[in-house]
Design brief:
Layout (H helix, E strand, L loop, with lengths): L4 H11 L4 E6 L6 E7 L8 H11 L10 E7 L3
Parallel strand pairs: 2-3
Antiparallel strand pairs: 1-2
Helix pairs in contact: 1-2
Amino acid sequence: MAMAADEIVRLIREALPGAEIEMRDLAGDDDHWAARVVAPQFAGKSRVQQHKMVYDALGGRMGGELHALQLTTAAPT
């Protein structure tokens, strides 16, 4: 079962209030996504820590409801 972009955005925004999120469907199937997440909570965190924060926000859906997510993360400049 695929996961819609608005659901992914909702989960990330709940965990990271104030995040700016851009979603792109990579395969046209609602199952392979690219996300760019810019969040103030990322300040001072490594890229690995930032990605973990996003995966944690998705609550274990990676590999199940959400098959693939290409992540780009950053703190606001």
